[in-house]
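Quick start: what a row looks like.
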Amino acid sequence: MAEEGRSLKTTYISVGVESGGCSGLSYKMEFTADMPANSELYEDNGVKVVVEKKSLLYLIGTTLEYSGGLNGKGFNFNNPNATRTCGCGESFAV
């Protein structure tokens, strides 16, 4: 966020699901300055996360964790609704 010159006060992290990936559905995540229509807002430790309502069915119970260890940096989606995931963890099926 800092690399893009964005601030926690004025930026949302938009999380959703779209068709694609080797398992059928893939996660999408991006920074946005505007609250998207038809979205739910969640806030934790000053971070505002918005989720499109149509994606909520696929993401209920999902945790989003950041790893900065030696095995790779980045976000991990731990989705209890996924019946199948791909090897890279970027796509899933329900």
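That is the whole record. The chain has a mean pLDDT of 85. The domain at 2-93 is CATH 2.60.300.12 (Hypothetical Protein Aq_1857; Chain: A;).
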